Every structure is written in structure tokens, then in C-alpha cells.
Amino acid sequence: MSNDVHKPVRYGTSFKDGTDKIQFWRVFLKHYAHPLADWINTWPNNPSNYRETMGKYCKEVKKLSLEITEAITESLGIGPTYMSNKLEDGLQVITVNCYPPCPNPEIALGLPPHSDYSCLTIVLQSCPGLEIMHTEEGAWKQVPQLHGALQVHGGDHFEVLSNGLYKSVVHRTTLIRERTRISIASLHNLGLDEKMGTAKELVDEEHPGRYKESSFKDFLNFPSTNDLAEGKSFINTLKI
Ligand SMILES: O=C(O)CCC(=O)C(=O)O
Ligand SMILES: [Fe+2]
After folding, report:
1. Ligand 1 atom 6 nearest Cα
2. Under CATH, to which class is 9-238 assigned?
3. Residue 111 Cβ < 6 Å to ligand 1
4. Whole-prediction pTM value?
5. 156: Cβ below 6 Å to ligand 1?
6. Where would I find the Fe2OG dioxygenase domain in this sequence (predicted)?
7. Is 125 in the pocket of ligand 1 (CB under 6 A)?
8. Which H helix or E strand runs over 182?
9. Predicted local confidence at residue 163, as pLDDT
10. Contacts of 146 (CB under 8 A, 6+ apart)
């Protein structure tokens, strides 16, 4: 197992590589995926079709992330191409999550409540288990698993970009007694050193900027543990 957050391929258990006080019921593989040619040779080659199959999937979801981003920035009134170049050249981080069968799913979680440090995240799940916090109702809602359907949720960076108009989606994963659950999360980010700030078009006297700028590298260097319940999430450190 490796807990060096700057390594291109990381394996781990629980939440954040090797730093957790409480253990969560998950093993994961994390790697970069864009540009594909730069990373594919660093990926595992067992099973033998992993690189080919995952490579195709990564390209498709990257394309989808750009289309969704265009729709989001257009809805914010800052134009469909506002983020295009930055996101196109940005990092795509893939997490393959494996949640083994759990004898006591009532008292354990696969992943604690968290928001993703991404612009947006696209998740493919093998069976239900992903839940999102419905903020108005204050209740967890299970994301149904429709065959091959992808779940898309906004991450911290779109909250910052939109000055809080879009809220980063808080989510968690529950466990199953009978079988293993697999999910693939694709996180779409800007480049490592590229700072995300609030769109200046959305800031004026009546709507002052509510977030500090940050880069993906700032996030990697954030010494977080999984004490998220105590509010130690990265997005909270960005709020002005
Ligand atoms: O397993 C899932 O459905 C979601 C995983 C997740 O939230 C993550 O990897 O950040
Ligand atoms: Fe997540």
C-alpha cells in the first residue's frame, strides 16, 4: 500500500490513503487517466484487458464531463466554453472502489459522508449503495442503479466557480451483506497547479466572493483525515 498522494497509481483501504483514524469498508485503486497515453502504461495490467477496457471508458466519460460542464457554465450565464480548455487539459482521476460483503451493514459504511474535490464526478456502480444527502429534506437518498446508468454529481470546484449557486454534493456509500459492490468514480479536475476561483462575472457588491482560490495540489497537500463529521472538509477551509 502507498500513502504518497503524489504517486500516479495508488492502492489503499478506507478513505484517504493510510491516514484514517476510523477504518472504512473499502479497498481502492486510484490512478490518473488523461491524457491517456501519458498514464495507461502505469496502470495495472492484470486483468489483461484492464488497460484497454478502462481506457475506452475513461475517454467516454472525459467527453461527457466536457459536455456537462458546458451545460453548467451556460446555465450560470458565463457561457458554454468558459471552462472548456482548462477542463479539457485538466486531470482525470479514476478511483476503482471495491466494497467486500459486510456482515454488519447496519453499523458500518463503505465511505463516510464527503464531497469530492473535483469540478464534477461521474460514477458507475455495480449495484445500489451510493447515497446522496438531500439538503432540503436533510435525508440520505439512495442513487438507483439502472443498468449502465451513470451518476453525475458536482464537486467542490463547481461550488467555488459558481460562488455557491451549485453546492458540492455530499455523498456516502453503504454496504451489502451478500455481495461485493464495485464502483468506478471518475473525478474531473483542472491541472495540478491551476487555481479555481469564483467566476468574476458572478461577483459584485451584492454578491461578494465567498470562496478562496485553490488548486488540486493544494487539496493533495491538505492534511485531511476522515474526520469529516467534524467538518474538516477541504471546501470548508475555502469559505471566506
Ligand atoms: O462507491 C461509490 O458509489 C462512490 C465512491 C465515491 O464517492 C468516491 O470514490 O469518491
Ligand atoms: Fe466521492
Report:
1. 185
2. mainly beta
3. yes
4. 0.90
5. no
6. 89-190
7. yes
8. strand 181-188
9. 97
10. none
